[in-house]
């Protein structure tokens, strides 16, 4: 990734942060106006974010994915901390948390959240391709919905594995190119029906219609496939596992045919979600 592209990504996400608001980048949640970075803002943003992923919660948010118990008192790294929701979860569970982000605004917000909540943690502005840590420094490393914004994903994944100790564990969520959202919403509706493939290449089209609610200028968002991730992560882990996460399936079906997602029973939605969901979750142990 060129230095200019790095600056573009950093600047765009600082100016268009993922606030989980009614409008991307704004502090309006279900009609309630707050101030970005205050206590009420974090409460409303978390309510939305956790609500999107409620199927991944049991006793704690995301405890169906994250092995909190095994890493209490251990060194945990988050790559791409955004507004700090997940860093705070790990810190509250007793992990020794370090979080990094390319965007200065995200670093500021995560520091502010931890301070407001009285939680420990180190938050650093850093590029995922060149993490400022020694080899094997962390016991658990994860990234949630971030590295598909990197034009140099393979490099970022290698760096992620470099800072993870042998027998350490990792978790990674990236958008799924073989999903219903990508096939129908991006390629078919926008690319084909609206003819945007005539003047946008696949990456530009994906960047425009994934994060940021169609905001102009998103520098890079490119979903991945399972085989692509297996080729890279399989070099480091012999117990690589994946899940397809599809909490958005009912929403996409409603876009395709109004009301369809609401009338379909859960037993009918789940197979679609498990095969064609918008997110891929990979986890494993560093060999």
Q: Care to give the gist of this entry?
A:
This protein is an alpha/beta fold and 287 residues long. It has eleven helices and nine strands.
The largest β sheet comes out as: 7 strands, mixed
Rounded radius of gyration (Å): 18 Å
Whole-number mean pLDDT: 92
Number of helices: 11
Q: Output the helix-strand order.
A: HEEHEHEHEEHEHHHEHHHE
Runs in which pLDDT lies below 50 for 5 or more consecutive residues are none
Query: Which second-level CATH architecture applies?
Result: 3-Layer(aba) Sandwich
Measured between the Cα atoms of the first and last residue, the distance is 28 Å
- Please tell me the total number of domains: 1
At the fold tier of CATH, the topology name is Rossmann fold
Q: Helical amount among residues, as a percent range?
A: 25-40%
Could you say which overall geometry the principal axes of the C-alpha atoms support? globular
Count all strands and give the number.
9
Indicate the proportion of strand residues: 15-25%
Q: Strand order within the widest sheet?
A: 5-4-3-6-7-9-8
Could you name the CATH homologous superfamily?
Answer: Vaccinia Virus protein VP39
What is the class in the CATH system?
Alpha Beta
């Amino acid at each position: 990734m060129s230095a200019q592209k790095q600056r573009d990504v950093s600047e765009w996400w600082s100016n268009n942060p993922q606030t989980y608001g009614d409008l991307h980048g704004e502090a309006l949640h279900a009609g309630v106006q707050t101030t970005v970075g205050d206590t009420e803002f974090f409460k409303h943003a978390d309510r939305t974010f956790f609500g999107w992923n409620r199927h991944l919660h049991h006793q704690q948010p995301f405890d169906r994915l994250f092995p909190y118990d095994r890493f209490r008192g251990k060194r945990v790294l988050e790559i791409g901390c955004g507004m700090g929701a997940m860093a705070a979860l790990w810190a509250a569970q007793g992990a020794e948390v370090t979080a990094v982000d390319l965007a200065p605004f995200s670093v500021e917000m995560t520091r502010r959240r931890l301070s407001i909540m009285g939680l420990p943690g180190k938050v650093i502005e850093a590029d995922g391709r060149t993490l400022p840590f020694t080899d094997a420094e962390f016991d658990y490393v994860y990234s949630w919905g971030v590295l598909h914004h990197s034009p140099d994903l393979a490099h970022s994944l290698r760096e992620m594995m470099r800072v993870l100790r042998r027998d350490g564990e990792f978790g990674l969520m990236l958008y799924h190119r073989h999903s219903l959202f990508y096939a129908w919403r991006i390629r078919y509706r926008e690319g084909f029906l609206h003819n945007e493939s005539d003047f946008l290449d696949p990456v530009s089209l994906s960047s425009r219609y994934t994060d940021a609610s169609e905001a102009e200028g998103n520098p890079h968002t490119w979903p991945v496939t399972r085989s692509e991730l297996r080729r890279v992560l399989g070099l480091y882990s012999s117990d690589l596992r994946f899940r397809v996460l599809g909490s958005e399936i009912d929403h996409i079906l409603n876009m395709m045919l109004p009301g369809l997602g609401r009338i379909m029973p859960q037993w009918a939605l789940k197979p679609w979600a498990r095969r064609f969901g918008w997110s891929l979750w990979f986890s494993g142990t560093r060999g």
